[in-house]
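Note to self: user wants both folds in one dump. Writing first protein now.
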Amino acid sequence: MVPSEDFPTMYTFPEDNAFVVSGDEVLKGISKTSYATSKEESRYALQGVLFKSLDGSMDLVATDGHRLALYTINRDGKGDVEIIVPQKALNELKKLLTGFEDIEMSASEQYVFFRTKEWVLMSRLLEGAFPDYTKVIPEQFSIEIKLPKKEFLDAVKRVSAVIEGDPKPVKLTLKAGILELKSKSQEYGEAVDEINVDYEGEEFSIGFNARYIIEAAEVIDGDDVIVRYTSPNAQTLVLPADEKDKYKAVVMPMEIA
């Protein structure tokens, strides 16, 4: 048996900074953002998910510098947080949540608290500066296309399968009525696939790490994906077709010869 003194101290729940969120929404927020957290130990603050309270809502945000995922949930109460919650704590929270309960949430300078009638979870916060994510999300775009989610994901996976390891560079080219996906491998040659799209503009090409596109689109609910391009050198926005869905993903392009 582990002596009680070996357990970390459980601090008092900060009642004066508390607010209520839906357990189901928190679960969705974790699943739709955690994939974008940094895996690099040197980027300590980016290894967790930012929880930032707004007026009547809260943004959950993750980024590794190459892509960003944002999910906005409703909240009830006046507590105020802008904290980075570590991935390990979020994994534990997912185990505790059923998705049917409301959660009281609060934070102090060093700790975050989640509480229901059955349990309390406390975790130390990650320290460090989280980038201003609002400046990364493009507000204007030059091209918008709507894609069948499954068909798009299957095509990206097929053409990137010829490339071993990571990154898996894939070139996307929009032509009249068609989105062409292409990748090259010294060992296996070239892979090309096409998807019919509603597009009649000028030819437009952009490159991505296939894994980033796959992970951004996979967590979208519904059958269709909206992709908004600005330029071949600027970040691309990946969205659900349902405007009521509060998920957004930003993917930085990569140069492909």
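First done. Writing the second protein, which came from a different request thread.
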Amino acid sequence: MKMHATIRRERDRRRRMAARRAGFSLIELMVVIGLILLISGAALPSIITIFNAGAEAQAYNLLTAQLTAARALAIQKATYTAVHVQRADSASTDPNDDYLNHMTDTFYSAVMIYADPDEDDGDPNRYFELAEGFTPRKLPGAAAFGEIDAAAPGYKSLAQPSLEDFTTLSIIFSPNGSVVRNVGGADIVFLTTDVFDPPDPIFENDLTATPPTETKLWNHVLANDDGVGGFAGEPGTTAVVIFDFPTLRAVPMGTARANYLNQNARLVPVNIHTGQLFER
């Protein structure tokens, strides 16, 4: 009997020891959790960089495809075309609203064509409008394009809080397929409610529709801003940079933004003869 009791006690002792060995103490768990958090924190910047690089590469490919399509369309139609890039405007039905209060962090690009919006109205003026068969395409992730100012070489308008002028740009093709900065000596101008009825839905709310269209993609005031207080449009560009928009917007205005772009943005000039992008 005594032997059996001793065997049972020894068996119970071994089970208790095995149970203790199978688990973790509180200190051990805290150490493991701390190591996991440390490793995750160290890896997060690299993961973000990978995602940003992927979005910028996709944006590059998207712009390349649209430039190819715009150039082919210019040659086919014997007219000017453009690829226009602009930050999306959120829904608004009040024309007096300040567009800066409705901006989002999403950018779109689209193929545009130079045409007479209404050949029977007696108005000989021609404007850029969305090309038939093409739809605006959203830039991937937080990627954005910024304009290199050819007139005063460097980044354009980095002093604006929301970078609206820097990120609104067009690459223009002439009827022979070359990249130009203007159309017959004039800057690029898009359709607005003053010259187009009903309004182009990518620039204005179409309140004449049934039911009324309460959203617009781009703000025409910004698209046609000439930078000197008027709305005569602006010249096309022949070089852009690709960058992460939220990151640049968080950088203090001025020199700090230029330094950030110099170190982190992807400079992409446009070949004026073929319209293709190449890198430096």
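Dump finished. Worth passing along: Residues 2-269 form one domain.
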